[in-house]
Design a protein that fits this description.
heterodimer; A: 110 residues; mainly beta; six-stranded mixed β-sheet; three-stranded antiparallel β-sheet; globular; B: 118 residues; seven-stranded mixed β-sheet; four-stranded antiparallel β-sheet; 0% helix
Chain lengths: 110, 118
């Protein structure tokens, strides 16, 4: 199972919006509505931000939103804040009943 | 409150074995599914293995035959037995929880560092 494809880095100024893409195949992203997104600060536990493509867990800001079209999922963060600076990973359930992660995207808030 | 605490990491020589533990509290490890996910230095997250509620296990191709995931319900603990360790197994290993019927990980531990080096 190959890793999902994410941009290595994105950046934005406070208050702006950014979008991180996540491209897979019909065996993972395109085949199921089971894409999730995780925020990871180095040295800490990853945190679930979006599940099942568009859903936010309780306690996650509504500035975070998810979508999917075909084999590509996206995470959008609006109203960027300094605290959003972190690594972001997409993940998808697969046709083999396993999971696959993206390579990760480093978000820099300028 | 859900909590996951990994232990058992350390420095091991290539070809050696190590067992990681993940002690759970606030829920039963047998109620849903549990996975191990790792992050090699400077790399992204990589899914390693899962044990489902019914006991079925799955592993990534690059650890299949070397790593074994298991759980002990009496101790409410998840394990990862790692044999024939290689330098590219060096990583922080996280345990993560998923609820039965879901397809994502809603709680994660802080991780345990495994370093494979001579």
């Amino acid at each position: 199972q190959s890793a999902l494809t994410q941009p290595a880095s994105v950046s934005g100024s406070p208050g702006q919006s950014i979008t991180i893409s996540c491209t897979g195949t019909s065996s993972d992203v395109g085949g199921y509505s089971y894409v999730s997104w995780y925020q990871h600060h180095p040295g800490k536990a990853p945190k679930l931000m979006i599940f099942d493509v568009t859903n936010r867990p309780s306690g996650v800001s509504n500035r975070f939103s998810g979508s999917k079209s075909g084999n590509t999922a996206s995470l959008t963060i609006s109203g960027l804040q300094a605290e959003d600076e972190a690594d972001y990973y997409c993940s998808s359930y697969t046709s083999s009943s396993t999971w696959v992660f993206g390579g990760g995207t480093k978000l820099t808030v300028l | 409150e859900v909590e996951l605490v990994e232990s058992g990491g350390g420095l091991i020589q290539p070809g050696g074995s190590l067992r990681l533990s993940c002690a759970a509290s606030g829920f039963l490890v047998s109620a849903g599914y549990m996975s191990w996910v790792r992050q090699a230095p400077g790399k992204g997250l990589e899914w390693v293995s899962v044990i489902f509620r019914g006991g079925v296990t799955k592993s990534a191709d690059n650890v299949k035959g070397r790593f074994t995931i298991s759980r002990d319900s009496s101790k409410n603990t998840l394990y990862l037995q790692m044999n024939s360790l290689r330098a590219d197994d060096t990583a922080v290993y996280y345990c993560a929880r998923g609820n039965h019927g879901d397809h994502y990980f809603d709680s994660w531990g802080q991780g345990a560092l495994v370093t494979v080096s001579s």
